[in-house]
Amino acid sequence: MEHIIEHQLLERFIYAGRANFTIEDKEFDTKLVVYVKENKTIPGLYWVRSNEQFLGTIFQSRFIIKDNEQNRLNRKAHAFMRFFILMLTNRLPETIVVYHHGTCGRCRRKLTDPESITTGIGPECVKKL
Ligand SMILES: [Zn+2]
Q1: How many angstroms does the Cα of residue 127 sit away from the middle of ligand 1?
Q2: Residue 71 C-alpha to ligand 1 middle, in angstroms?
Q3: Does 79 fall in a domain?
Q4: Which pLDDT belongs to residue 72?
Q5: Residue 108 lies in a domain
Q6: Confidence (pTM)
Q7: Are 76 and 55 spatial neighbours (Cβ–Cβ below 8 Å)?
Q8: 66 by DSSP, 3-state: which?
Q9: How many domains does the structure of the chain reveal?
Q10: How many angstroms is it from 39 CA to the middle of ligand 1?
Q11: pLDDT by residue (tens digit) across 27-60?
Q12: Ligand 1 centroid vs 95 CA: distance in angstroms?
């Protein structure tokens, strides 16, 4: 199941540690499935994947595209870069809609209560963020 996350709740969700979501761009009719995983040993470091493909890292609020020929031409990595910058600067247009996949952004357990389904974070995990 996919559930919309409001734009103002996105940053907390994406930085929760194990965030699985889809970015839909209604203007360009594209969908990007993303998994943002926290590196537990280096604070502020996250890995960004789309399905099994590694797109790059987030470090100290900057997204760095994986540096190789393949990724320089990678539309997915650039689409994520655009989304990430718009999110951090509070400029996401209404045409960009983000959905979580029904699992907690921090622990990936299935979300059941209505409040958690709205925010994408479970009741225990929300206390730890
Ligand atoms: Zn959780």
Answers
A1: 10
A2: 32
A3: yes
A4: 64
A5: yes
A6: 0.93
A7: yes
A8: coil
A9: 1
A10: 17
A11: 999 999 999 999 999 989 999 999 989 999 999 9
A12: 28
